[in-house]
Amino acid sequence: MIKTIEWTDEGIRMIDQRKLPTEEVYPIFRSYREVAQAIKDMVVRGAPAIGVAAAMGIALGVRDARARTVDELERELERICQVMETTRPTAVNLFWAIERMKRTFARAKRDGLSMDEIKRRMIEEAQKMYEEDIQTNRRMGQYGAELIPDSATVLTHCNAGTLATAGYGTALGVIRAAVEQHKNVRVLADETRPFLQGARLTAWELMKDGIPVTLISDNMAGYFMRQGKVDCVIVGADRIAANGDVANKIGTYSLAVLAKEHDIPFYVAAPTSTIDLSLASGDEIPIEERSGDEVTRIRDQVIAPEGVEVANPAFDVTPHRYVTAIITERGVARPPYEESLRALVESSERAEPLSAHRASAPHELGDQ
Ligand code: MRU
Fold it and tell me: What pLDDT is stored for residue 357 in this prediction?
């Protein structure tokens, strides 16, 4: 099994996703600064994986801090979190994970724990977040698999699989769950320019699992939809606003518009930690702009004239009217999303961690 991220006593071990599929290497990142840089450089990527990596990085930074008192340690935690916050702006899971680690520290301090005990609590919390993410994805898979017909071709974009999470995946988790239910599923994977997450990562991890996958370049999606060869689209998300607008990898919006034109269901699979109720609409979601080199080069190969002007927004926002349903670990949200998403987030805040439960029958919220 692929281990995207792993806590070790020497540091955080992560598969270097920049090197896939040609090299499978697992370097160890030995300080919180190294972990932050790895998030920035996309050694690790995908919203839930970024959250777990940040939590482990924070735990590592706190463990290795030279503070002599709990108050000093708290100030050091603030500095560590500030560094983590500047890594990538769009995936809200990063900020969700940072807040959760800060709350863990505050609770431990309030309980009067010693420095060593606080450090241990922080490591345990990061590891718990790792375990919970896998449970969350499995549960999401159960809900989402219900929406996939028995014999289906599913189009996906970017990589929302094991590599983008602690394990199993969100959009690919739904596909995995459908396959586990013996449904005959084929995947069409968009290559996902410019960083090629679809070609390099999705194709790689699905092939490893023996799930049939056909790689297409991004501009081929409409061709296959028009031929009736796509039964549904499933993508992940980096942030979902209160009204159901979805930020995801650049190119998702075009797919959603195409899907609507061809009457193809467009599903988003994401944990409730990706829902940001503080933002009324997707217009408020910060969109990361990455280096133009990602567009003008493929690895070391230059593919554009030197000095050309380049734009490289890493994400786009799909307005909620294009989204058929949002699959979460707490159930499937349907329009109107203001109500259905709020209900799911509130149920997840009230509930115990998923690892304490067995998955129950799928339920749906919103209009059918
Ligand atoms: O830039 P990336 O590779 O971090 O972007 C990843 C995506 O857009 C994914 O679709 C999203 O994070 C969901 S991953 C479960």
Answer: 40
pLDDT one-digit tens code per residue, 132-165: 999 999 999 999 999 999 999 999 999 999 999 9
Whole-angstrom distance, CA of residue 116 vs CA of residue 101: 16
**Helix (H, G, I), strand (E, B), or coil: what is residue 258?**
helix
Q: What CATH number is given for 5-136 in this structure?
A: 1.20.120.420
Counting atoms of ligand 1 from 1, which one is nearest the CA of 315? 8
Catalytic site residue from 133, 238, 276, 316: 238
Beta-carbon contacts of residue 27 (< 8 Å; ≥ 6 apart): 13, 14, 16, 43
> Where are the domains positioned within the chain?
5-136, 146-365
What percentage of the chain's residues is helix, strand, coil (to nearest 5)? 45, 15, 40
pLDDT digits (tens, 9 = 90+) for 13-38: 999 999 999 999 999 999 999 999 99
pTM as predicted: 0.95
Rounded distance between C-alpha atoms, residue 80 and residue 143, angstroms: 37
**∠ CA(277), CA(283), CA(289), 5° rounding?**
110
Residue written as tokens 């603030």? 78
Query: In angstroms, rounded to a whole number, what is the distance separating the alpha carbons of residues 86 and 128?
Result: 24
Q: Which of 158, 168, 193, 255 to mutate to test the pocket of ligand 1 (most atoms within 8 A of CB)?
A: 158
Is any atom of ligand 1 closer than 6 Å to the C-beta of 47? yes
Indicate whether residue 248 lines ligand 1 (CB < 6 A).
yes
For the domain made up of 146-365, give the CATH fold: Rossmann fold (3.40.50)
CA distance 206 to 257: 26
Summarised one tens digit per residue, pLDDT across range 171-208 is 999 999 999 999 999 999 999 999 999 999 999 999 99
238 is catalytic: yes
249 lines ligand 1 (CB under 6 A): yes
pLDDT in tens, 224-271: 999 999 999 999 999 999 999 999 999 999 999 999 999 999 999 999
Best of 248, 250, 255 for a ligand 1 pocket test (most atoms within 8 Å of beta carbon): 248
Cα 179–chain centre separation: 21
